[in-house]
C-alpha cells in the first residue's frame, strides 16, 4: 500500500446531514450518516475505499438536488518535483495544484518565481519548469505563502475568495485540517467546494456538507513512531563536512555573545527573542554565544562550582529560544580575556584558595584551576534546561562546545602548555558528551609546528602567542577547526583594501590546511569590521561580508572543508549599549541584510543537493548548480 492509499485508508469521514434549504419549504429531511468502521486501524482496510466513499457521498448530494459540477472534496497533495539534469526542476503536477486552489497558473507562476528568485515557464504538458535545482521543501513553503497571500482571507481566515468572477457565480471554499506553521508545509488540507447563486439580490446557500476529519495526520504519524516535522537531529561531522540527516550542512551563522546576560533581566529578555527572530528571518542557522560569566556582574559562576540559578535559567531561556527558531548554538565555556571573568578570574579564585599564582597563563597548567574548569564544564553539560526539560548534553539545539574563546598562552611560545590543556580538556568534554562536536575556539594563528605557514599570519607576534593551528586541531577529541578574521585588529585599524586581500589569503590557507592536514571542517566563527575603525563606512563592511561569503562558497562548490562563517555580531534595536563597534543591526542595515539572506539561500540550496554517502561523486553537478546560484555578482 503506497503512502496516498495509507492516508486515504485512515480518513474517518462523517456526513453530518444534507439539508435542502428552500425559503418556500421548511420540511425537515431525515438525517443521513455515512461512517467508516470505528475499529478500522492503520494496517487494516476500511469497508469502502476512499473513492467509493466519495462516490456515495456525491450520490447522496445528487438526491438532494445539489449541483455536482465540481468535485466536492479534493486532497491537496504534496507537489511532485523532478530534476532534469542540473539546470531544470519540473513540477509535474502544477496544473493540478492550480486547479485545486482555483487560481490561474499564470498568477501562481509569477508569485512563485519571484519568491524563489529564478526563471520558469509552462511546458506543453502544463508542467512548471524552473531554472536551477529547487528542493521539494522549499517549493512547498513558497506555495504555502501563495495560499496565505492570495487564497486565505486575511480578515476571517476563510478561503472563500476569488481573484475573478464568472457570470455572477462565486466560488466558496471551506478549509479543514491544519497547516504546520513551523515547517510551512501543508498537512491534510481538505477543500469542500460549493457554488452559491445570487437570487433576487439575496445570496442563498443551496446546500452544505461537512466532512469531519477525526484523525489528524500528525497524530496518526506520531502514533506509529513517525514525526510529521523534520527530525531536530544533532549535526554531525563526517570527514571534512558537517552533515544533518545524511545531507551536507554548510553554515551561515552569527555571534551575539551577551544573550545570557540580558536574558537574566526580564526588562531586556525580549532582546534575545528579537535576535533569534531577525537571524531566522535572514536564514541564519547557527549562533555562537557565551555559556560563561565568571565572578562578574550578573555572574553565572559566582565562585568555583557556585552558580546563580537565575542566570542559569537565563541561559536555559537562550537555548530554548534558539530551538524555537531552529537555530543551533555554539556554546563557549570560558574566556581567554578578562571580559566576563576569563582565565584571570580563575587565577584570582586560585589565589583566594591559597595558591601562589603569578600569571594568568597558570590557568592552563595548575591542577586546581584545571579542576575548577572541569567542574564548570561538567555542570553546564549536565544541566537540565528548566524550559525544555532536556539535558544540555542531549539537546540537538547545541551545535558544538567551544573549549575557550580565543585561547592564548604567550608565556610559552612553544605552544606545549596550551597543547597539553587542549588535549586534556577535549577528551574530558567527550567523556561527558560523546554526541556533540567539540572545537577549541582558536583564532587560527600558525605556530612552530608549521613554520612554512606562518607567512599567512597577520603579523610576526601572532606566532608567539602559544597557539598552533595545525597542531592544536590534531588533538584527540577535536571535531572541527575554528578561525577568526579581524584584519582591523591584527594589521591596521585604518580601513583599506589590504583587509580584503588578507581575508582572502587567510581563509584560503586554512581551508587548504583543513583538507590537507586535518581532514576536518573549518568554521570561520568570527569575522567583521568595526565602525570605530578610521575610514569605516557601511559599504566597506558589505564588501567584507561579500569577501568572506565568496570564499565560503568557493569551498562549498567543491564540497570542501570551508564549512561556513559566523558574522560578529548581530544586534537588535535597543541593545546599542552593548555594541562594541562591530554590531550589524539587521532591521536597518538593509544592504547587509540582503547579502546575508542571499548567502543563506545559496547555502540552503546546496545543502539540499546531495547526500554525504555519494562521496561527492556529483561534484560536477554541485559545481554547475552553484555556478548558477552565484552568477549574480552584483548581489553578492
UniProtKB/TrEMBL annotation:
Gene3D superfamilies: 3.30.30.170, Glycosidases. Residues 70-179 form the Translation initiation factor IF2/IF5 domain. It catalyses: Random hydrolysis of (1->4)-beta-D-mannosidic linkages in mannans, galactomannans and glucomannans. It is an enzyme of class 3 (hydrolase). It comes from the Eukaryota. Keywords: Glycosidase, Hydrolase. Its EC number is 3.2.1.78. Belongs to the glycosyl hydrolase 5 (cellulase A) family. This is mannan endo-1,4-beta-mannosidase. The lineage of its organism: Eukaryota, Viridiplantae, Streptophyta, Embryophyta, Tracheophyta.
Amino acid at each position: 500500500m503506497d503512502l496516498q492509499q495509507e492516508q486515504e485508508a485512515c480518513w474517518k469521514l462523517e456526513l453530518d446531514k444534507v439539508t435542502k434549504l428552500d425559503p418556500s419549504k421548511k420540511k425537515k429531511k431525515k438525517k443521513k450518516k455515512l461512517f467508516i468502521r470505528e475499529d478500522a486501524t492503520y494496517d487494516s482496510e476500511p469497508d469502502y475505499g476512499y473513492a467509493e466513499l466519495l462516490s456515495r457521498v456525491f450520490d447522496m448530494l445528487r438526491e438532494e438536488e445539489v449541483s455536482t459540477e465540481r468535485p466536492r472534496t479534493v486532497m491537496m497533495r504534496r507537489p511532485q518535483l523532478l530534476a532534469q539534469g542540473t539546470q531544470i526542476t519540473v513540477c509535474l503536477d502544477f496544473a493540478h495544484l492550480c486547479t485545486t486552489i482555483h487560481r490561474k497558473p499564470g498568477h501562481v507562476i509569477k508569485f512563485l518565481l519571484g519568491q524563489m528568485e529564478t526563471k520558469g515557464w509552462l511546458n506543453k504538458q502544463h508542467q512548471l519548469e524552473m531554472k536551477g535545482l529547487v528542493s521539494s521543501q522549499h517549493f512547498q513553503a513558497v506555495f504555502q505563502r501563495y495560499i496565505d497571500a492570495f487564497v486565505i482571507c486575511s480578515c476571517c481566515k476563510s478561503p472563500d475568495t476569488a481573484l475573478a468572477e464568472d457570470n455572477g457565480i462565486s466560488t466558496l471554499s471551506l478549509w479543514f485540517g491544519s497547516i504546520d506553521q513551523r515547517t510551512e508545509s501543508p498537512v491534510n488540507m481538505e477543500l469542500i467546494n460549493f457554488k452559491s447563486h445570487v437570487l433576487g439580490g439575496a445570496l442563498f446557500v443551496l446546500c452544505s456538507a461537512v466532512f469531519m476529519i477525526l484523525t489528524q495526520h500528525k497524530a496518526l504519524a506520531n502514533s506509529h513512531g513517525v514525526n510529521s516535522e523534520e527530525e531536530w537531529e544533532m549535526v554531525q561531522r563526517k570527514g571534512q563536512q558537517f552533515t544533518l540527516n545524511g545531507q551536507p550542512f554548510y553554515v551561515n551563522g552569527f555571534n551575539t555573545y551577551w544573550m545570557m546576560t540580558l536574558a537574566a533581566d526580564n526588562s531586556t529578555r525580549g532582546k534575545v527573542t528579537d535576535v533569534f527572530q531577525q537571524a531566522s528571518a535572514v536564514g541564519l542557522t547557527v549562533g555562537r554565544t557565551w555559556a560563561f560569566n565568571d565572578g562578574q556582574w550578573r555572574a553565572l559562576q559566582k565562585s568555583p562550582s557556585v552558580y546563580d540559578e537565575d542566570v542559569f535559567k537565563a541561559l536555559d531561556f537562550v537555548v530554548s529560544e534558539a530551538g524555537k527558531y531552529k537555530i543551533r548554538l555554539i556554546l563557549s565555556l570560558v574566556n581567554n580575556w578578562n571580559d566576563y571573568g576569563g582565565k584571570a578570574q580563575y587565577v584570582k579564585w586560585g589565589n583566594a584558595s591559597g595558591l601562589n599564582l603569578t600569571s594568568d597563563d597558570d590557568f592552563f597548567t595548575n591542577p586546581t584551576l584545571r579542576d575548577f574548569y572541569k567542574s564548570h564544564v561538567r555542570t553546564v553539560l549536565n544541566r537540565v534546561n528548566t524550559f525544555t526539560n532536556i539535558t544540555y548534553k542531549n539537546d540537538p539545539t547545541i551545535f558544538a562546545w567551544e573549549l575557550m574563546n580565543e585561547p592564548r598562552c604567550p608565556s610559552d611560545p612553544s605552544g606545549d602548555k596550551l597543547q597539553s590543556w587542549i588535549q586534556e580538556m577535549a577528551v574530558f568534554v567527550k567523556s561527558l558528551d560523546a554526541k556533540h562536536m567539540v572545537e577549541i575556539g582558536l583564532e587560527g594563528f600558525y605556530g612552530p609546528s608549521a613554520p612554512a605557514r606562518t607567512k599567512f599570519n597577520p603579523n610576526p607576534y601572532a606566532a608567539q602567542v602559544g597557539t598552533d593551528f595545525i597542531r592544536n586541531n590534531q588533538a584527540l577529541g577535536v571535531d572541527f577547526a575554528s578561525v577568526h578574521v579581524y584584519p582591523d585588529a591584527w594589521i591596521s585599524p585604518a580601513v583599506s583594501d589590504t583587509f580584503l586581500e588578507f581575508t582572502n589569503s587567510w581563509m584560503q590557507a586554512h581551508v587548504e590546511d583543513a583538507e590537507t592536514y586535518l581532514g576536518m571542517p573549518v568554521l570561520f566563527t568570527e569575522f567583521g569590521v568595526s565602525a570605530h575603525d578610521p575610514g569605516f563606512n557601511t559599504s566597506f563592511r558589505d564588501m567584507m561580508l561579500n569577501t568572506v561569503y565568496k570564499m565560503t562558497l568557493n569551498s562549498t562548490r567543491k564540497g570542501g572543508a570551508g564549512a561556513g562563517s559566523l558574522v560578529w555580531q548581530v544586534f537588535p534595536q535597543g541593545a546599542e549599549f552593548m555594541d562594541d563597534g562591530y554590531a550589524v543591526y539587521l532591521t536597518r542595515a538593509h544592504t547587509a541584510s540582503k547579502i546575508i539572506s542571499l548567502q543563506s539561500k545559496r547555502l540552503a540550496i546546496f545543502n539540499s543537493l546531495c547526500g554525504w554517502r555519494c562521496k561527492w561523486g556529483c561534484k560536477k553537478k554541485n559545481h554547475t548548480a552553484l555556478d548558477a546560484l552565484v552568477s549574480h555578482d552584483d548581489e553578492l
